[in-house]
Structures are given as structure tokens and as C-alpha cells.
């Protein structure tokens, strides 16, 4: 009996690990898109033009102030009424990226604002171009401040990917629910394994961000 139980657990684990490939792919693609959105939005929030700031602020507040699940449903179920029909994976990526991009935009904005204005003025006095100021003065200091917050958002993003199971995308959570439906007696084993796999994925990504933080702080007193 013990051998049979272990074999069953291993079979469930292998199926869940295979399903986790979708979760990992979704996480990576959504995180990359969210990062682009965050940096563009964060910089535009500092733009001198009020209309641009207003438009970006509206996007940030809407996506920060509403549920990711509702946003996901809108993108997957409502947009087709307007002639925009997205595959499940794409809908999941777009919803997650827009949501976490909005949250991370504030982190980016705060990071850039944290750089002392005196240093920027000094760089101008030394005839640094705007790109040189960004490359040598602003970005290296701002990124050190951003990374811990962005790392936390990454962990939240990983957990948020579980919501795509509600539109039928066969990710880790969806596969676990289907397996549990087929054999309810395995409920405990299935969800313990799902929990552990999510924890492992989160730990790997968190370790990556900690490594980035250490590298960003190299040479800093």
C-alpha cells in the first residue's frame, strides 16, 4: 500500500510540474511586459505635461483600484463584444501585466524622485546630456531603491497567475482542480503539492531579485 501511495503521489507531482510550465511561462512573459509598462508609466508620471500625467494617472488608478479578476474577465469575456478576442494565455498576460505594471509604476516614480536634485543639477553643470544623466547619475541610484519593491511585486504577480485558471487556462491551479475533480480523495495531496510548487517558483524568482539587489549595491559604501 505504501509503495502504491508513493507512486500515486509521484504521478500527481509529475502532472503538476508539467502544468507548472504554463504558470512559469505566464509569469515570465507577464513580468517582462509589466516591467516595460511600469518604467514607461513611472517616467510619464513625472512628465511636465499635465495631460500626459493625467492620462497615465487615470490608467494607474483604475488598475490599482479594481480587482485583477474583474480585469481578467473584462479582457477575456467583454472585449470580444468589441471585436477584440484574445487567446486565454494572451488575455492572462495582458491582464496581469497591466495590473502589476500599474502598481509598479508608483515604485518606479518614487525611485526616480529619490535621486537628490543637487546631483542632477551638478551633472547639468558638468554639461552631461539628458541620456548621460540618466545612465550615470539617476538610473544607478534609482534602481537600487526600486528593486526591493519590484521584487515584492514579482512575488505577488506569481500568486496572481493562479486567477487565469478561472478562464480555463490549463495552468498549475487549473490542472490541480481538474485532478481533484476526477479523484476527490486526492484533494489533500494535490493542494499540498500545488502549494509547494508555487512556493518553489516564488523562492526561485525572489532569489533572483536578491541577487540583482546585491549586484546593484556592489561598490556602495
UniProtKB/TrEMBL annotation:
Instruction: Specify whether Cytoplasm is a keyword of the entry.
Output: no
* GO molecular function (one): transmembrane transporter activity
Q: Name one Pfam family in it.
A: BPD_transp_1
- Which SUPFAM superfamilies does the record associate with it? MetI-like
> Where in the cell?
Cell membrane
Q: How does it sit in the membrane?
A: Multi-pass membrane protein
Q: Where are the transmembrane segments?
A: 24-46, 58-79, 188-212
Q: Does the keyword Secreted apply?
A: no
**GO BP terms in the entry:** amino acid transport
- Matching PANTHER family: L-CYSTINE TRANSPORT SYSTEM PERMEASE PROTEIN TCYL, MEMBRANE COMPONENT OF AMINO ACID ABC TRANSPORTER
**Into which family does the record put it?**
Belongs to the binding-protein-dependent transport system permease family.
Q: What is this protein called?
A: Polar amino acid transport system permease protein
Look up and give the organism this protein is from: Thermoanaerobacter uzonensis DSM 18761
Amino acid at each position: 500500500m505504501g509503495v502504491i501511495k508513493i507512486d500515486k503521489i509521484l504521478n500527481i507531482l509529475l502532472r503538476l510540474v508539467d502544468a507548472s510550465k504554463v504558470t512559469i511561462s505566464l509569469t515570465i512573459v507577464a513580468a517582462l511586459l509589466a516591467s516595460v509598462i511600469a518604467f514607461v508609466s513611472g517616467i510619464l508620471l513625472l512628465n511636465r505635461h499635465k495631460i500626459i500625467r493625467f492620462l497615465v494617472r487615470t490608467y494607474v488608478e483604475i488598475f490599482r483600484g479594481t480587482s485583477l479578476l474583474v480585469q481578467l474577465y473584462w479582457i477575456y469575456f467583454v472585449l470580444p463584444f468589441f471585436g477584440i478576442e484574445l487567446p486565454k494565455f494572451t488575455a492572462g498576460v495582458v491582464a496581469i501585466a497591466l495590473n502589476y505594471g500599474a502598481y509598479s509604476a508608483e515604485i518606479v516614480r518614487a525611485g526616480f524622485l529619490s535621486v537628490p536634485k543637487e546631483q542632477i543639477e551638478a551633472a547639468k553643470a558638468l554639461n552631461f546630456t539628458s541620456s548621460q544623466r540618466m545612465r550615470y547619475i539617476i538610473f544607478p541610484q534609482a534602481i537600487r531603491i526600486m528593486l526591493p519593491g519590484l521584487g515584492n511585486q514579482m512575488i505577488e504577480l506569481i500568486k496572481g497567475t493562479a486567477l487565469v485558471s478561472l478562464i480555463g487556462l490549463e495552468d498549475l491551479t487549473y490542472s490541480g482542480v481538474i485532478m481533484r475533480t476526477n479523484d476527490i480523495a486526492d484533494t489533500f495531496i494535490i493542494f499540498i503539492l500545488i502549494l509547494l510548487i508555487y512556493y518553489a517558483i516564488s523562492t526561485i524568482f525572489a532569489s533572483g531579485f536578491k541577487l540583482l539587489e546585491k549586484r546593484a549595491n556592489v561598490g556602495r559604501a
